[in-house]
């Protein structure tokens, strides 16, 4: 990917970042090696299983509340709170599966990503992948990052905004 200037170049290639601090780079490499030795980069499958189960449990509890108590104000309010929590949690869970960061094979990540985003969130995985790839290509860059374009400029924080020139 030399032509795109993405990532680190080979050691024999010149660096295109004149302000790159070699000591800082070496410290980050050492930190990454330490983190990997500690096993912090490996996903805990039990955690993600419990994460999915709690989402399904809250989803079932919300619908059961409406079925048992009807649609009066308090059951409706409780159901809304439960389903809001379910949607937020399912969004982050599908994000982890979408990044293929839970299982060692992409097959299981894709399968669960499709289940969570398709059945629990009600959106196609292909749409999320397309939008998220654009976000990672130009993160926080107005008119290029779809995550930023969904929000008005009024809510942007900071004095200097990242823009494509």
UniProtKB/TrEMBL annotation:
GO MF annotation list: oxidoreductase activity
Listed InterPro entries: FA_desaturase_dom, Fatty_acid_desaturase
Transmembrane segments: 46-67
Annotated ranges, domain Fatty acid desaturase: 72-152
Keyword Transmembrane helix annotated: yes
Transmembrane helix keyword on record: yes
Keyword vocabulary terms for this entry: Fatty acid biosynthesis, Fatty acid metabolism, Lipid biosynthesis, Lipid metabolism, Membrane, Transmembrane, Transmembrane helix
Any one biological process term the GO annotation gives: fatty acid biosynthetic process
Designated name of the protein: FADS1 isoform 10
Source species of the chain: Pan troglodytes (Chimpanzee)
